[in-house]
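Before drawing any conclusions, I looked closely at one protein, both as residues and as discrete backbone shape codes, quoted below without any editing:
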Amino acid sequence: MSEEEKDKDKESEETASAEEVSEEGSNDSEGSNDSEDSEDSAEGSEEGALSESDEDEEEEEFDEDEEEVEFDLEAQVEEFRQQIEEDPDNCVNFYNLGEALAELGQTDEAKESFEQALVLDEKEEFSAIIYLGIGDLYYHQLMSGIQSTVVKSSVGLHSAHKQQNTISSVCNTDYSVPIEQFEKAIQFIPTLNADEDIVDYVSKNAPMQIATIYYKWASDLFDKARQLDHYGDEVKDIKQGLKYLKKTIAIDASHGQANLMIKYGKKMLLEGFSIYDEYGFEAKIIQGSG
């Protein structure tokens, strides 16, 4: 065999060898990819399992947090009682106890604690925040009664009378007492010895609570005027309700429901209004001035 032929054979063998190596490399690459896909899949499964496990742990932690909040509140009450024993002349201790008791729904005890705080606050340095606390107690009592079940946005729907949700009487002190407490809170803001955040909180919330109560007072008077039985003061109640709505607007000019009820109340007085029973029959007619 000539040298030239030997060189050709050698080149053929090298070419074949290179192709084999290339094929093996390709197969190895495919195997590697399959392995990586398998590993990714396994990791995904593990991550999914971990994610579910994390969610379960978060739910358990959330439940534990709720229990801790309740437990801490009870513990705070005891802590504040202990502070009162150690320093019975400190009005702040009685205020803190009142707030904690209010959070627990122990209204009577909270009120007693607030009132004792006022007695001890001789310099009136904390009277504003104490009166705000008392006002909130009365406010929540008001809102937890029948007033909370009457449809608040009933303006324009007065023909749809719902007797089971109708207010048949309105006790003025239910509204005037919390308003009085909030007004006192505002009165004592200048002497409030607290940081800026607390002063701002009292300054903002006391007036808004008053506005809300006046709106509710008016709304309840409107609803009282819509009861099926005639009692003779329907027009008087609507007029009084309009006065309270104007007080609401004086504090909160952007109160949309109050503005709407003023328009409707004026229309009721001018055109009169009818109330229908549950069967759709006209049960009550109030004549308008127009």
Summary: The chain has a mean pLDDT of 80.
